[in-house]
Design brief:
By secondary structure, the chain is of the alpha/beta class. The chain has helices spanning about 1-50, 150-155, 165-170, 205-255, and strands at about 50-55, 70-75, 85-90, 95-105, 105-115, 135-145, 160, 180-185. It is found in: Cell membrane; Membrane.
Length: about 260
């Protein structure tokens, strides 16, 4: 019986440790769900808010809470310092975007001028279409800097993987505002097949069901302890009953043989 108690104790310790891990993973998924729902609410609120001049927003470091506000900016594009941002997706389409500095009366800001789809089997060009000449008006979404390793944010020959104003400013050669504008509309219009970058899908994602799965795994583990111990007890009881029956049979045969 002592060996059974040792085995049960080790089993309980192992399963409880796993259950704690599973519960923590479930709670982590619920936290991610809450974060996503908060982000969705912020996106909806910002997108529905009145359009603001870009100077009223791009006067500080742009953070997640600023994203997807609509702003307008008027100025001239600096086509000599634009960048091709490669390997981008817009919905199910694959292609690239072109980022060009916009020089305004109050400063400069990077503008993602839009997405250009690449036909499968063709490469991404080394240079994007030139911007419209003269004064333009840009209506677009506020975006924070994209973060990644140094090789992804630092431009090489006018090409880059992520849009980060801090990393692109040295290549531009003059100060630019933190973050960037993702263009919805440029007036006068621009050529080159640009389409606006889509707003992220506002869904809750799979986090709730992932959390339920982790909690279910924890419950299955706890239930498994009960099933395992009951099985051991049943096997032990069956073994005792078999031994008692054999002993009784042996006792009954002994007088007849004598």
């Amino acid at each position: 019986m002592r060996r059974l108690w040792m085995r049960w104790a080790l089993l309980v310790v192992f399963v409880v440790a796993l259950a704690v891990v599973f519960v923590n993973l479930g709670e982590w998924q619920l936290r991610r769900l809450a974060e996503r729902e908060n982000r969705n609410a912020t996106t909806i609120s910002n997108e529905q808010a009145p359009v603001r001049p870009y100077e009223q927003v791009f006067d500080r470091v742009i953070v997640d809470a600023d994203q997807w506000q609509r702003v307008t900016a008027t100025g001239t594009f600096d086509g000599d310092h634009q960048f091709v941002v490669r390997n981008r997706n817009n919905g199910e389409d694959r292609g690239y975007v072109v980022v060009t500095p916009l020089r305004t009366a109050t400063g400069s800001v990077l503008v993602d001028r839009g997405f250009i789809q690449v036909v499968p089997g063709t490469g991404i060009p080394a240079a994007g279409p030139p911007p419209p000449a003269g004064e333009v008006r840009v209506l677009g979404y506020v975006r924070r800097n994209e973060l990644g390793r140094q090789g992804a944010v630092s431009p090489v020959n006018g090409s880059v993987r992520l849009i980060n104003s801090d990393a692109l400013a040295p290549a531009v050669g003059y100060p630019v505002a933190n973050g960037f504008i993702s263009a919805i509309e440029v007036s006068p219009g621009q050529e080159g097949g640009f389409v606006p970058v889509a707003v992220p899908e506002l869904t809750s994602g799979p986090h709730f069901w992932y959390a339920m799965q982790w909690f279910m795994f924890a419950g299955i583990g706890i239930l498994g302890i009960v099933v395992f111990i009951r099985s051991d007890l049943r096997d032990r009881r069956t073994a005792r009953e078999k031994a008692a029956a054999e002993a009784e049979g042996e006792r009954q045969r002994t007088p007849a043989d004598t």
